[in-house]
Amino acid sequence: AHPSPTRCFGQEAETETGVCPVGVWGGTSSVQLFQRTRPTSPLKMPDPEYVVMKLVAPILGFLIANAMFFSGVPGMLRCKRDGSLGDMNPLPFPVVLANCVSWIIYSILIEDYFLFFSNAPGTMVGLYFTLVAYGLSPYKSKMRDALEAWLMSFTFALLALTLYVGIVAMDKSVEHKKTVVGLFANFVLLIYYAAPLTTVKQVIVTRNSRSLYLPLAVANTVNGGAWFVYGIALRDLFIMVPNGVGAVLGALQLVLICVFPSKHDTSPPPSFRGGLGSTQDLLESQGEEHGGEHGGGKAELEE
Fold first, then answer.
1. What is the dihedral of CA 44, 45, 49, 53, to 10 degrees?
2. What's the Cα-to-Cα distance from 73 to each of 66, 280, 286, rounded to whole Å?
3. What's the predicted TM-score (pTM) here?
4. 8-state DSSP, 21
5. Strand partners of residue 5
6. How many other CB atoms are found less than 10 A from the CB of residue 222?
7. Surface-to-core class of residue 63, CB atoms within 10 Å of its CB (0-12 exposed, 13-18 middle, 19+ buried)
């Protein structure tokens, strides 16, 4: 027969004995902890596809992304110690900062810890690099003025985005807010992707992969692929598409490194030729110090 419910200190619990279980004291019930319940279905093992796409992929992306962000710290500390930027182009740093902040806002909207903690360290690194580079830039130089302009422009854009999502569109759906922030994050990422495209063109024209950095090309490919898989798992185009593009660009760089081996020459590095800069100059100088085959090149600092 089905056991009758028993009331214990104002709480009704169904037990097999019909008496209050041990552990009910002072009005605090531990019925759920101590009562004997009927057997439940056996615990199912997690689906391997779920584990790979929703756990392994984002964890791998988190580890690689942060390794890429912090790989430039020794070079920046060296520049700070020497009191000079040398031939480093600091313009990508505000882009890194804006990119990470926009993805943090997006991670809050979709309530995703992996995405948040993959971009939080990048935000700190991007801010630190930007501040140090600004302090080391020659006073009244074009580079310092450009760094100021980029930083203020991205700060204004992020404030406008926060104002719209947090106040103006308060009554809008979460999907609408995700779309707005996702488009903004992808727009910033497209600006950043303009840099490696410049490098790819340079390598093809000169038939020399000196401006590419092999370890970072591998990291970009794996990192982009991992987040692309995670985007598929979440069915999120805003994560899937840009990281898919990043993985393709990384793979393209690997192909170029194999087809056009690195040849050292005396031509000035890309940072002297103006523009956003096609790679992370910090890693170039760091690679040259260690004398790596492709260490003389530069590397993207991507999400």
1. 100
2. 11, 11, 10
3. 0.70
4. P
5. 14
6. 16
7. middle
Residues 302, 281: Cα–Cα separation, whole Å:
13
Burial 125-134 (b: 16+ CB within 10 A, else e): bbbbbbebbb
- Rounded CA separation 248/280 (Å): 19
Q: 28 - beta bridge partners?
A: 25
Q: Which two tokens stand for residue 95?
A: 């882009």
How far, in Å, CA of 48 to CA of 7, rounded?
44
Neighbours of 90 (CB within 10 A): 25
Q: Is the dihedral of CA 273, 280, 84, 262 positive or negative?
A: negative
State the CB neighbour count (10 A cutoff) for residue 91.
21
Torsion angle, alpha carbons of 198, 185, 77, 250, to 10 = -40
- The DSSP line for 222-279 is HHHHHHHHHHHHHT-HHHHHHHHHHHHHHHHHHHHHHHS------SPPGGGG-SS-SS
Q: Which residue has the tokens 């979440």?
A: 234
* Backbone torsion region of residue 277, taken as left when φ is above 0, otherwise alpha when ψ lies between -120 and 50, otherwise beta: left
**Which element (helix H / strand E) includes 104?**
helix 92-110
| Average pLDDT for runs of 10 along the chain of length 303 | 48 47 46 48 69 84 86 85 81 90 94 92 93 90 90 95 93 93 91 75 85 79 89 91 89 89 60 44 49 39 41
